[in-house]
Recover the amino acids of this structure.
């Protein structure tokens, strides 16, 4: 399938470009057996003007007819190519980076190309945070429309649920985004199926608007316009959200 690249896409994000946009659809908890709980999910991959992709996933339990029952999870984070940081990269905190990007063109990006398990692609660095005091740090690999991630570290707050390690896989098949997530809760446990889903892209592009500096009132209006398209199924009609995803 041909992938249409945004004309203003940072060269460093080209390997991730097929993920950009908003995806919606249904999945199953656990192994996906007939009696496992069904869920509806909305996932967004968005450009933010930096050489990273911002990730957000919201998930609601659903009944067998696809009607939304209640929210169960939200997670947010950042996906980027794994490379050595330079003065062009901002941080820590609000420290601005140099105006000249670290990777200026396709030739610079190609220097990062590597092979894993016989597949030619790029190493990934992914951070995902959850409510409840859990942050996952993933090392991974993207090879065309396929992604494999495995935790290189998990940080838990004092009262967080047990969470030792995880793997995630993503793939684009017939224009649908498939993913699977396996988790080991306690140290020494084997990884077990946690969930999987099949999502359809409902909004392409995935680029956030630049900051509006026209004043507080204008900025508030712009924020409202941006958020208006992100209302969850519970905020409107669950059946409407389900029907859109199933089309």
């Amino acid at each position: 399938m041909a992938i249409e690249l945004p004309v203003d896409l940072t060269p460093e994000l080209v390997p991730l470009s097929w993920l950009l946009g908003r995806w919606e659809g249904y999945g199953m908890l656990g192994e996906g057996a007939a009696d496992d709980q069904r869920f509806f999910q909305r996932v967004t991959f968005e450009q933010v003007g930096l050489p990273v992709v911002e990730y957000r996933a919201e998930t609601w339990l659903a009944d067998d007819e696809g009607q939304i029952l209640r929210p169960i999870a939200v997670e947010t984070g950042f996906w980027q190519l794994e490379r050595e940081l330079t003065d062009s990269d901002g941080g820590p905190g609000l420290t601005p980076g140099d105006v000249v990007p670290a990777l200026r063109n396709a030739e610079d990006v190609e220097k990062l190309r590597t092979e894993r398990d016989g597949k030619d692609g790029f190493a990934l660095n992914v951070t995902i945070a959850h409510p409840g005091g859990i942050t996952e740090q993933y090392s991974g690999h993207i090879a065309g429309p396929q992604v494999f991630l495995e935790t290189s570290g998990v940080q838990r707050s004092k009262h967080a649920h047990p969470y030792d390690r995880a793997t995630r896989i993503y793939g684009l098949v017939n224009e649908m985004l498939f993913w699977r997530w396996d988790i080991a809760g306690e140290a020494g446990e084997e990884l077990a199926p946690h969930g999987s889903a099949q999502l359809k892209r409902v909004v392409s592009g995935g680029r956030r608007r630049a900051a509006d500096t026209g004043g507080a009132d204008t900025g508030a209006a712009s924020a409202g316009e941006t958020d208006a398209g992100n209302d969850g199924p519970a905020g409107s009609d669950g059946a409407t959200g389900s029907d859109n995803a199933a089309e």
